[in-house]
Amino acid sequence: MYKSHSDTESKLYDPLINTHPGVGMPHSASYWVDTAGSAPQDDGPVNGAMDVEVAIIGAGYTGLSCALHLAREHGIRAVVLEANQVAWGCSGRNGSFARISGGRVPLAELIQRYGASEAKAYFEEMSAGLNTVRGLIREGQIDCDVQPDGVYKVASHARHVDGLKREVGLYNEVLKYGATFVSDTQVHAVHGGAESFGALYMPDGFSMHPLKLAWGIHRMARAAGVKVHVASPVTDWHSDNGHHRLVTPGGVVTARQVVVATNGYTSGALNKATAGRVLPVHSQIIVTRPLTADEKQQSLVGSECMFDTRNLLSYYRRLPDDRILFGGRSAITGRDAEHPRHRQNLHDALCRKFPALRGIAVDYNWGGWVAVSENSLPFICKVPGLDNVFSGGGYAGSGVSFSVQTGKRLAQMVAGDSRPTSIDFLHRSPKRFPFQPFLRVGQRMAYVWYRFKDAR
Ligand SMILES: Cc1cc2nc3c(=O)[nH]c(=O)nc-3n(C[C@H](O)[C@H](O)[C@H](O)COP(=O)(O)OP(=O)(O)OC[C@H]3O[C@@H](n4cnc5c(N)ncnc54)[C@H](O)[C@@H]3O)c2cc1C
């Protein structure tokens, strides 16, 4: 059913089609790769048989943070197995917003589904996640171009203003958090152009250089005694008598405990127990040439994190060298993701928002797979049907800070705490998606419907 990576004519790894993400593939070309400097040292590929207490599959924020916290707080030195390079997945190619976020469930719906007290506990866990990231940057002296705090959720249509005001009310009254509503004239001080009718403002949350952040956590983990093996995809997995044999091209790693930190890059072929529990959804980014002073004045004066209220939302920021990073969703399959029309869709959305940038050159364009779970919320759980296997993910494109927090919580679970938070839904295994062969048909129909609604 699944094709090995080299069998496929599609250039982009597709977790619903391929067996694993590759063997030592270079980072996808991006603005982040061009501006990150040299990669830190790693431990090379697995070379021969290894016998370890804990193996972590995937070297993104989740896996690296889990390894770091296991070593530092629990005295367990794990081995991380990464198919390609450190932070080759989402962690090295994201939109760079570290926010109080995790998953994609509107606040009103979260409160309705789980009640005010669990929603508040979850909000506090997400806030703790942001603080965990701040703490690591501070302690590890990670030089990752941190920008001043401030997050705007911008009303892209006048009709969305009342909804934002209601959301501010929920933040204030239910979560006791100081979000504010910012009028259109105030927003225009930071966000010129069109499609800005007011905004929900959150004082906490910042942008940074995501690959530098990942490399910083990687350095800290290795300094604490963690081994990070790149070019070591797990291509087969056998479990018996409490031992897991993870097959990689360079040798078999036998582990008593395993953490699956592959998130949106999880192939169905990795293990039946983890298959079909997240839908990989493609998110894409363009980066323009640097703006002139005039263009800056007419588009993004501020450097805060911004996203809009569309159903197929756009996220954007001005980079330190005055380029605009602009991201959103368009492609559905890996095979189609590199088609120029997806880059054009983003360019059109950028110019609709900032007419002064019409025709602006785009210097970078890349994408990656975010993981959406069946309830659109993250999970930090034991994998059902497997002994001593844990997994975290499902951040739905809002996982920079929450994946770091999830890694910390997974470390606690590996060390014996079966329920490191009081939040029930977080520790339940994600349900498998029903009608799996038709998932992408459903996604395609949803995108058509969202585009129609957004255009109205
Ligand atoms: C374009 C884009 C923009 C985004 N923007 C934002 C944003 O602005 N703010 C935000 O909060 N979130 C954002 N996200 C989401 C965020 O980046 C992710 O939630 C987070 O990085 C997830 O980290 P992770 O470690 O769980 O997964 P990843 O970083 O994806 O790491 C998974 C790793 O597992 C490896 N792997 C997979 N299978 C195997 C195997 N068989 N063997 C060995 N290794 C394997 C992969 O190679 C990969 O390196 C964005 C994501 C994308 C793609």
Layout of secondary structure:
Blueprint: H1 31-35, E1 50-57, H2 61-74, E2 79-81, E3 97-98, H3 107-114, H4 116-139, E4 151-154, H5 161-173, E5 180-182, H6 184-187, E6 199-202, E7 206-207, H7 210-223, E8 227-229, E9 236-240, E10 243-248, E11 251-260, E12 278-288, H8 293-297, E13 305-308, E14 315-318, E15 324-328, H9 340-353, E16 362-373, E17 379-382, E18 389-393, H10 400-414, H11 439-455
Parallel strand pairs: 1-2, 1-11, 2-8, 4-13, 11-18
Antiparallel strand pairs: 3-7, 4-6, 5-6, 9-10, 10-11, 12-15, 12-16, 13-14, 14-15, 17-18
The protein binds flavin-adenine dinucleotide.
Description:
The chain has two domains: 231 residues, FAD/NAD(P)-binding domain (3-Layer(bba) Sandwich); 148 residues, D-Amino Acid Oxidase, subunit A, domain 2 (D-Amino Acid Oxidase, Chain A, domain 2, 2-Layer Sandwich), CATH 3.30.9. About 1% of the residues have low confidence. Helix content is 29%, strand content 21%. It is globular, with a radius of gyration of 21 Å. The protein is an alpha/beta fold. The chain contains eleven helices and 18 strands. Helix 4 packs across helix 10. The structure holds flavin-adenine dinucleotide. The site of flavin-adenine dinucleotide (FAD) has 46 residues, from helix 2, strand 12, strand 16 and helix 10.
